[in-house]
Amino acid sequence: MTSVNFTASVDLDLLRRVKVLAAMNDTSVSALLNGELRYLVETCEQADRLGNSNAATLLAFCLGRISDVQAMAQLELEHEEDLSDSRLAHLP
Asked: What is the dihedral of CA 53, 39, 62, 74, to 10 degrees?
């Protein structure tokens, strides 16, 4: 697989925290980013193939495109803390 460099902006505090996480796991920020992007894309693609809109709803919420109230209604959740549950993307 071919790798390519690209430029992105990241919140400074987040970058510091990611660097600590990478060091604690004996890996690089690039490896963490690559793994998370791959997971995001594969999860969204699989959900789309299955007709599951939960991943798209969570992505829209994380990007600030829909409110917590809208996300909770679309995901049929009762508690706001449930929005942070990573298993939501796989709900039927």
From this structure: 20
Q: Report the C-alpha gap between 77 and 88 in whole angstroms.
A: 10
Q: Match 């990478």 to its residue by tokens.
A: 22
**Euclidean distance between CA atoms 60 and 71, whole angstroms:** 8
Residue the block writes with tokens 């925290």: 17
pLDDT at 89 (0 to 100): 56
**Which pLDDT belongs to residue 58?**
87
Query: pLDDT by residue (tens digit) across 15-48?
Result: 999 999 999 999 999 999 999 999 889 988 998 9
CA distances from 8 to 15, 33, 35, 45, 78 (A): 11, 11, 16, 23, 35
Query: The whole model's pTM is what?
Result: 0.72
